[in-house]
Write a structure and sequence with these properties.
7-stranded mixed β-sheet; methyltransferase activity; S-adenosyl-L-methionine; methyltransferase; about 200 residues; 7 strands; about 35% helix
């Protein structure tokens, strides 16, 4: 998707798009660096937008790994559907990540190894962010990871309510520079939600 199309989506949906520009390749590399691609069975991505992180996930994944994308913006969803229509073990839903548990049950996925998120939690309604983060903490397997990026430190404290460990790194080669949060719940157990 060209820059002007991305900008148009930002202007018409600033709360859900959250940025004027797509994420950089440098940020994408940092977002996926904690993933053990050889052993990951299930990876989710929230808010893939135009697919900058998705591209990296597909480049590195084991072909048997299932990847599920949740994109609430219909225009971005259409772009992703067209771009990845022939890719095996990739499921794309035009839906909010708030419904992640329902869709995992539908797909028969018992737990998740990694969740990569491009959602702008700082601009989403707090109740929506709360539901997404709570459900995410429940679907991750033991030592699974939730990785997100934000443009402000304000969300770190909020996210720490849901994860016992939050490691922070900065990627300055992004416009604007982004803070990457790699979150885990060390006490979590596989399959904590009912199938």
């Amino acid at each position: 998707m060209k820059f002007l199309s991305f900008l148009a989506q930002y202007i018409s949906n600033p709360r859900s798009v959250g940025a004027v520009l797509p994420s950089s390749s440098y940020l994408a590399d940092k977002m996926i660096e904690s993933i053990d691609f050889d052993n990951a069975k299930y990876i989710l991505e929230y808010g893939p937008g135009t697919g900058v992180f998705t591209k990296k996930l597909l480049q590195h994944r084991n072909p048997k790994t299932v990847i599920v994308l949740f994109e609430n913006n219909i225009e971005f969803y259409k772009v992703l559907e067209e771009k990845y229509k022939d890719v095996d073990n990739l499921y794309i839903y035009n839906e909010s990540a708030e419904k992640v548990d329902w869709y995992l049950k539908k797909c028969g996925i018992p737990y998740v190894d990694y969740v990569i998120s491009g959602l702008p939690f700082a601009s989403l309604p707090k109740a929506v962010s709360h539901r997404i983060l709570l459900k995410t903490s429940k679907i991750l397997r033991k030592n699974g990871k939730f990785v997100t990026f934000q443009y402000t430190k304000a969300m770190k404290t909020f996210i720490e309510q849901f994860f016992s460990k939050v490691d922070v790194s900065i990627e300055i080669r992004n416009v604007p520079p982004a803070m990457v949060l790699c979150c885990s719940l060390e006490e979590n157990l596989e399959g904590t939600y009912a199938i």
